[in-house]
Design a protein that fits this description.
Number of helices of chain B: 0
Shape of chain B: globular
Largest interface: A-B, 23 and 24 residues
Number of strands of chain B: 9
Largest sheet of chain A: 7 strands, mixed
Radius of gyration of chain A: 14 Å
Helix content of chain A: under 10%
Order of helices and strands of chain A: EEEEEEEEEEE
Number of strands of chain A: 11
Strand content of chain A: over 45%
Strand content of chain B: over 45%
Order of helices and strands of chain B: EEEEEEEEE
Radius of gyration of chain B: 13 Å
Distance between the termini of chain B: 36 Å
Oligomer: heterodimer
Number of helices of chain A: 0
Helix content of chain B: under 10%
Structural class of chain B: mainly beta
Shape of chain A: globular
Chain lengths: 121, 106
């Protein structure tokens, strides 16, 4: 059974760095073709892709946010960590961790419940 | 940067057919997946590789993708199909979501 769960602070101040952790079970990220990705959704708005880390540790980032993002994995803990620097109120939203089945179409087959992050002083 | 365009809203009567489109340059050359999001819930995949239905998704959901437009079709729409629908495609190692379509079953 595949599960994913996001954790991190619910409230961060502007200019701070956000650190989110995705804890997953039911699969091994070093399985060929699997990826973990982060997606966010501002309140009432559309989904926005942030970053992806692949089974072979390849890392991809949203071009518009690349300079602020870092994604990494801790295979021993079955966790993927996303950091986002210089947080702004516009970064407020729900942040989702999700699994991508990357063989062919790179579709998202499992999602975490999401974690709401509010950026405010 | 690559963009995917969806209509903001689609309305359909119960039992009728709903079609939600997703448009992008040469989208037919890419694989498209679709996600349903009900209020307060995480998205759920309802279609992948343009026209493949995941296990557990009703047969009334179907998909197609050709030239510049991908379409998610719901035949015999039910009230439980209400929600926001997003298309997703990859371009140059970047994931792109459509702006989402709110499906209302009236």
């Amino acid at each position: 059974q595949v599960t994913l769960r996001e954790s991190g602070p619910a409230l961060v101040k502007p200019t701070q760095t956000l650190t989110l952790t995705c804890s997953f079970s039911g699969f091994a990220l070093n399985t060929r073709g699997l990826c973990l990705t982060w997606i966010r959704q501002p309140p009432g708005k559309a989904l926005e892709w942030l970053a992806r880390i692949d089974w072979d540790d390849d890392k991809l980032y949203s071009p518009s946010l690349r300079s602020r993002l870092n994604i990494s994995q801790d295979t021993s803990k079955n966790q993927v960590v996303l950091t986002m620097a210089n947080m702004d109120p516009a970064d407020t939203g729900t942040y989702y961790c999700a699994r991508i089945f990357g063989s062919g179409s790179y579709h998202i087959d499992y999602w975490g419940p999401g974690t709401l992050v509010t950026v405010s002083s | 940067s690559y963009e995917l365009t969806q209509p903001p809203s689609v309305s359909v009567s119960p039992g009728q057919t709903a079609s939600i489109t997703c448009s992008g340059h040469k989208l037919g050359d890419k694989y498209v997946s679709w996600y349903q999001q009900r209020p307060g819930h995480s998205p759920v995949m309802v279609m992948f590789q343009d026209s493949q239905r995941p296990s557990g998704i009703p047969e009334r959901f179907s998909g197609s993708n050709s030239e510049n437009t991908a379409t998610l079709t719901i035949t015999g729409t039910q009230a439980m199909d209400e929600g926001d629908y997003y298309c997703l495609a990859w371009d140059s190692r970047t994931a792109v979501f459509g702006g989402g379509t709110q499906l209302a079953v009236l």
